User: Which sequence fits this backbone?
């Protein structure tokens, strides 16, 4: 029998610390598959965030650097400028990228740094215990918004992909989801393209991945997939907001 | 004769059941008689003969627990 699906080489053969049903694992695998297919593992450097994915350096068979909270794009900028022949990517959550790290991501994107950013949006702070994030949906209950997010007080959830797509320099910006096999296929294509943009066009690429947090959403993993489909995708539409042709 | 074969790394399974939602033949289920090293009921194939080797389960699994082979 021929293998149809096996673990990608760039994904470390270890058990992750993620909760059961957390889709971080799917995103990790898609990145590892893209790295394998482009054959860039030997010259790839990842930058890990603070958040649930803080231990991401344990899960990839590529070089990694840990960054202070939100500062992954700044650290990646330094690595890429010092070692321009390397492929540099950051892996960040919504608390990391869209809250404490907003300045770093906006300016790294605006400078058009040739890095790839994988931004995992699950609409909540995961590691710290389910607090409201900038991406938490209107009316969504969290430990710090027990009556639901009040947009009059807290503002509206921030759409980072659209925001960054208004800048001139970024080459590729897309939003995908990982809640079904079809969406996972789309996510795989977008993540691979985001690496290709860095390798071939030397430009900034960001993929926002809508992800689940069953533990802090208070849902069983199967229901979390449906919650993402019914609540997140209507507010965070999927698609490519910027492709290399338009940037030129 | 089954067209496909799945190999489940039972000790890595966290019992989240995401794979069971995408199996077109609905032949994946948690095994209530087993408990793995992590303390979860691991997923198992209820009818191996029905497997078509589509690998949707493996693509949905967040923990890379499943490997798939096909004729």
Assistant:
């Amino acid at each position: 029998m021929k293998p149809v699906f096996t673990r990608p080489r760039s994904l470390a053969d270890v058990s992750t610390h993620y909760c059961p049903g957390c889709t971080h694992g799917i995103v990790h695998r898609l990145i590892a598959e893209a790295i394998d297919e482009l054959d860039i593992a030997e010259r790839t450097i990842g930058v890990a965030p603070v958040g649930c994915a803080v231990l991401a350096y344990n899960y990839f068979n590529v070089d990694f650097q840990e960054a202070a909270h939100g500062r992954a794009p700044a650290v990646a900028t330094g690595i890429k400028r010092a070692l321009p022949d390397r492929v540099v990517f950051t892996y960040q959550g919504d608390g990391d990228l869209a809250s404490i790290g907003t300045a770093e991501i906006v300016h790294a994107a605006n400078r058009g740094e040739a890095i790839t950013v994988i931004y995992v949006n699950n609409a909540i702070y995961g590691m710290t215990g389910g607090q409201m994030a900038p991406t938490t949906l209107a009316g969504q209950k969290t430990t710090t918004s027990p009556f639901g997010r009040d947009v009059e007080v807290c503002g509206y959830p921030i759409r980072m992909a659209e925001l960054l797509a208004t800048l001139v320099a970024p080459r590729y910006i897309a939003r995908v989801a990982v809640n079904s096999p079809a969406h996972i296929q789309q996510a795989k294509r977008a993540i691979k393209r985001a690496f290709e943009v860095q390798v071939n066009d030397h430009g900034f690429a960001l993929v926002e991945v809508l992800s689940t947090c069953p533990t802090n959403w208070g849902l069983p993993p199967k229901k979390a997939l449906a919650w993402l489909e019914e609540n997140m995708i209507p507010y965070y539409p999927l698609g490519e907001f910027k492709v290399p042709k338009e940037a030129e | 004769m089954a067209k496909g074969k799945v190999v489940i790394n039972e000790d890595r399974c966290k019992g989240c059941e995401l794979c069971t939602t995408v199996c077109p033949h609905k032949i994946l289920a948690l095994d209530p008689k087993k408990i793995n090293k992590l303390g979860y009921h691991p997923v198992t194939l209820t009818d191996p003969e029905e497997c078509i080797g589509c690998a949707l389960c493996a693509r949905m699994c967040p923990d890379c627990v499943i490997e798939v082979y096909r004729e």
